[in-house]
Automatic annotation (TrEMBL), chain A:
A UniProt-annotated Pfam family: CcmB
InterPro entries: Cyt_c_biogenesis_CcmB, Cyt_c_CcmB_bac
Compartments in which it is found: Cell inner membrane
Biological classification of the source: Bacteria, Pseudomonadati, Pseudomonadota, Betaproteobacteria, Rhodocyclales
Family: Belongs to the CcmB/CycW/HelB family.
Function: Required for the export of heme to the periplasm for the biogenesis of c-type cytochromes.
Name assigned to this protein: Heme exporter protein B
Automatic annotation (TrEMBL), chain B:
A GO molecular-function descriptor: heme transmembrane transporter activity
Signal sequence extent: none
Compartments where located: Cell inner membrane; Membrane
Bilayer topology annotation: Multi-pass membrane protein
Protein name, entry field: Heme exporter protein C
One Pfam family this sequence matches: Cytochrom_C_asm
Gene: ccmC
Highest taxon in the source lineage: Bacteria
Organism: Pseudothauera rhizosphaerae
Function summary: Required for the export of heme to the periplasm for the biogenesis of c-type cytochromes.
PANTHER family from the UniProt entry: CYTOCHROME B_B6 PROTEIN-RELATED, HEME EXPORTER PROTEIN C
Length: 222, 267
């Protein structure tokens, strides 16, 4: 079982590595969106400090949304997905492996880049670990929920916009707790509660989302 | 993929007896046609009674004045919008488990009505909020979760309309409805949490002084009217969806011919 997981994980990571320009696009999008906000709201330092957690989180959310369509599209186009579904391996397993590879290639760079971008907003140094941790716990949830949406809209016309419509309302709790963690830390109440809730959300999503995603893929390939 | 029509291959299976036979679209179509006008009539009666009580009998609220009367539409609409989503998720689950086409059709027929009630609740809420809170929109927990519910409805409707193969559209929509139903309480509580963090105690409907009995009666009548209306409209929509889905079958041809004949007399 573990060997299947690792094989798919390795394959997807290798494929991403071969097409690494795509990954840079996601990261670049994140950076550019974050940098747009000061132009929109003005460069007043106090204001920037106040909006920093929300801006970083919304940008990370949009960036991972933008990458979602890549999750299954290529395998769908070349028939790999069909073969995987026909194989005797449990679908939940390789779906989880694909999501893990997806997060490692699109989510993790955002987590790493976020603290550096936070400096542009003059976010307090002590809040940076909280920001990183909240993103590290939150972005996998985004990937897991998004995978369900990506599977549902696979090969559907106008899939990209539709995917956004399906997934964004479901992202709201993650955004609330993610940005809330940093805000709570800055406000002095401590971020423990939000981070624990994010962790709980991650555990729940890990248990349920791959399963829903696998059945959505089966529906799409019927 | 099999195309199921009225079906030679299944001849050996005994058709279900009792009320279960209405799970077949062909059986349900005439039943829905007979029931819908009754529900519509009940809805009209209840709404008339509820509105009369609400606008003429119920006393003016001493704090809010006449504005409060919007609750006779607002609250039933908000209840209904949340309840319809649960019913949709229920029928989606039934459809996925039992593999009955009619269940999916019912959940898709309910979605536009749910979205409509959601919108009505938001709109009337805004009209009530302006004189009472001084703003059309406040980022209150209830308002925000209602807005997100509207987005969930939009997502469901958009997804089921975007997929051309009806079988796939049914199932994909059902999975989405279930994912949404799991998320609705999470969204609600997270929004409440967020709201208390950002705003402190805000204006809340729950804190309004307890209602006079006559107001409650009016509101319950309106809620029942909303129920009856939803059922009637959903039944009519189910009929339209059945005709659309089964348009290649013989029985639909026969039904349409009979209806054309009946209409021919008028023409």
């Amino acid at each position: 079982m573990l060997s299947t997981f690792l094989a798919i994980l390795r394959r997807d990571l290798l494929l991403s590595w071969r097409g690494r320009a795509d990954l840079l696009v996601t990261l670049a999008f994140f950076v550019v969106v974050v940098c747009l906000f000061p132009f929109g709201v003005g460069a007043e330092p106090n204001q920037l400090r106040a909006i920093a957690p929300g801006v970083l989180w919304v940008a990370a959310l949009l960036a991972s949304l933008l990458a979602l369509h890549r999750l299954f599209a290529q395998d769908h186009a070349d028939g790999t997905l069909e073969q995987l579904l026909l194989s005797s391996e449990p679908a939940v397993l390789w779906v989880l492996a694909k999501i893990a590879a997806f997060w490692l290639t699109t989510g993790l760079p955002l987590v790493i880049a976020a603290p550096a971008l936070a400096l542009l907003f003059d976010l307090e140094q002590s809040a940076l670990p909280v920001l990183t941790l909240s993103l590290a716990l939150g972005t996998p949830i985004l990937a897991l929920l998004g995978a369900v949406g990506a599977a549902l809209t696979l090969g559907v016309r106008g899939g990209g916009m539709l995917l956004a419509l399906l997934v964004l309302p479901l992202y709201v709790p993650v955004l609330i707790f993610g940005a809330g963690a940093v805000d709570a830390h800055l406000g002095g109440t401590g971020a423990k509660a939000q981070l624990l809730l994010l962790g709980g959300g991650l555990a729940g999503a890990l248990a349920l989302a791959p399963w829903a995603c696998a059945s959505a893929l089966r529906i799409a390939m019927e | 993929m099999t195309i199921s029509t009225t079906t030679p291959g299944r001849a050996a299976v005994r058709p279900p007896q009792g009320w279960l036979r209405f799970a077949a679209p062909q059986q349900f179509y005439p039943l829905a046609g007979q029931l819908a006008p009754w529900f519509a009539a009940l809805a009209a009666l209840l709404a008339a009674a509820g509105l009369y009580i609400g606008f003429f009998v119920a006393p003016t609220d001493f704090q809010q004045g006449e504005v409060y009367r919007v609750i006779f539409i607002h609250v039933p609409a908000a209840w209904m919008s949340m309840f319809i989503y649960l019913i949709m998720a229920f029928w989606s689950a039934v459809g996925l488990v039992m593999n009955t086409r009619l269940s999916f059709i019912v959940s898709q027929a309910l979605a536009p009505t749910g979205a409509m009630f959601c919108f009505v609740a938001l709109w009337t809420g805004a009209l009530w909020g302006k004189p009472t809170w001084g703003a059309y929109w406040v980022w209150d927990a209830r308002l925000t979760s209602q807005l997100l519910l509207l987005f969930l409805y939009f997502g469901f409707i958009a997804l089921t309309r975007a997929i051309e193969d009806p079988r796939r559209a049914d199932r994909a929509g059902a999975v989405l409805a279930l994912v949404g139903a799991v998320n609705v309480p999470i969204i609600y509580f997270s929004v409440q949490w967020w709201n208390t963090l950002h705003q402190g105690a805000s204006v809340s409907i729950a804190k309004a002084p307890s209602m006079a009995t006559i107001m409650l009666v009016g509101m319950l009548l309106m809620a029942l009217a909303a129920w009856m209306y939803s059922i009637a409209v959903a039944l009519w929509r189910v009929r339209a969806l059945i005709l659309e889905r089964e348009r290649h079958t013989e029985w639909v041809g026969a039904v349409l011919e009979a209806e054309a004949k009946a209409a021919g007399g008028v023409r």
